[in-house]
């Protein structure tokens, strides 16, 4: 009989302990493409986890957990994850992935349902610009309302291009870039455009490149991801050297297995420059914060981070780390409760009130976010034109920043 009572006592102790443990967990969903662009997904995951490790993955007694959610590049699967998030009483925020289309397509649903979405990669301009109510989306990444200006400026000034031809992914992401690039080029210099679909293969890429080379184009501005990007670069190599023209690319190519697929073409002289934020892991030893971050990351992920200077999709790590630092800062000014909707809303508000400097890898963030309005449509963008640089791959696959052009960073018309 005493054994029976002792068993019941232990059962209830265990039950309440488990219930308490469950109530003290906060999840961060990572809605990303772990199937086709695994390099970028892993880089983002490791960046955020490195930042969270600095506070021992805890805040106010809650354990912070990252939950992988593989959308496989499918917007409908991304929506499924968003719905799961809404119904999960432990889910605090979603860390977005590489692809812009899901967040453009479902932007209204995200904001109408109070889904706190943090973006370390997807660059589509409309993602952070919700005009009809409280805005729940915050980004620390390239912003396509500005990226096109940097791409066109580099093509014109650094590469002396007179006739730009754009090669754009036929998605909402590509279309948002088309508008920005046209604005950057100017009304009288609108570039010709070729559209391509996801999963475009090498033979189709060769046909498109041949048609561009037969025009008067002297450079290509490319917006696409790693798979298609590698095919276009390899297609360029298939033509005689004297016919080849430079490719100025969006940073989407850096999110997958691009380097290993395009290495031969790049090493044999195909010119490829791409936009990214102004920090390279190639240079981490120069900066105390970066050295400490790399040391921590290598302890957490010894195999993946062994050769961090050639880490695949490196800016995924950099952006997620910096975004994680901002998240921690905002959480320190949030009173958490057992009401997850309250926690999401309080954290959303706290992100707009970070007013103490937060040291990241790219820069020190003074006031990274503010209240969004139509007159302040960069309010949820932590990075701006001054933080965007051009880069290229070194012979070992590491990313090397190119010299920045002197420009009036607050005047987009300077490059028209």
From TrEMBL:
Superkingdom of the organism of origin: Bacteria
Record flagged with keyword Cytoplasm: no
Keywords, in A-Z order: Signal
CDD domains, A to Z: PBP1_ABC_ligand_binding-like
UniProt domain Leucine-binding protein: residue ranges: 39-267
A Pfam family of this chain: Peripla_BP_6
InterPro entries recorded: BCAA_transport (IPR051010), Leu-bd (IPR028081), Peripla_BP_I (IPR028082)
Assigned protein family: Belongs to the leucine-binding protein family.
Protein's name in the database: Leucine-binding protein domain-containing protein
């Amino acid at each position: 009989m005493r054994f029976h009572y002792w068993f019941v006592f232990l059962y209830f102790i265990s039950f309440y302990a488990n219930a308490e443990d469950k109530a003290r967990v906060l999840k961060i969903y990572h809605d990303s493409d772990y199937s086709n662009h695994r390099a970028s997904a892993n880089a983002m995951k490791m960046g955020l986890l490195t930042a969270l490790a600095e506070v021992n993955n805890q805040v106010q007694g809650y354990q912070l957990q990252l939950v992988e959610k593989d959308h496989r590049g499918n917007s409908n699967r991304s929506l499924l994850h968003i719905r799961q998030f809404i119904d999960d009483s432990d889910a605090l925020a979603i860390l977005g992935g590489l692809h812009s289309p899901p967040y453009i397509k479902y932007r209204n649903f995200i904001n109408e349902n109070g889904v706190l979405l943090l973006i370390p990669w997807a660059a589509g301009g409309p993602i952070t610009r919700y005009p009809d109510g409280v805005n729940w989306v915050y980004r620390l990444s390239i912003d396509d309302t500005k990226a096109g200006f940097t791409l066109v400026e580099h093509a014109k000034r650094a590469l002396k291009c007179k006739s730009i031809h754009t090669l754009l992914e036929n998605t909402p992401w590509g279309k948002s870039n088309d508008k920005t690039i046209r604005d950057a080029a100017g009304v009288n210099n609108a570039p010709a455009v070729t559209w391509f679909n996801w999963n475009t293969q090498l033979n189709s890429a060769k046909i498109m490149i041949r048609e561009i080379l037969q025009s008067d184009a002297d450079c290509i501005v490319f917006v696409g991801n790693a798979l298609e990007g590698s095919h276009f670069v390899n297609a360029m190599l298939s033509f005689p050297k004297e016919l080849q023209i430079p490719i100025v690319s969006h940073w989407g190519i850096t999110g997958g297995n691009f380097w290993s697929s395009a290495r031969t073409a790049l090493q044999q002289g195909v010119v490829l420059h791409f936009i990214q934020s102004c920090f390279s892991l190639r240079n981490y030893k120069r900066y105390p914060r970066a050295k400490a971050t790399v040391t921590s990351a290598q302890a957490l992920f010894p195999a993946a981070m062994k050769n961090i200077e050639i880490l695949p999709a490196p800016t995924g790590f950099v952006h997620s780390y910096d975004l994680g630092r901002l998240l921690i800062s905002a959480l320190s000014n949030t009173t958490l409760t057992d009401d997850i909707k309250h926690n999401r809303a309080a954290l959303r508000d706290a992100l707009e009130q970070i007013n103490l400097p937060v040291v990241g890898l790219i820069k020190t963030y003074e006031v990274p976010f503010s209240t969004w309005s139509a007159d302040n449509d960069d309010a949820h963008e932590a990075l701006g034109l001054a933080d965007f640089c051009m880069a290229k791959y070194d012979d070992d696959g590491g990313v090397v920043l190119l010299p920045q052009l002197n420009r009036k960073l607050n005047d987009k018309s300077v490059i028209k």
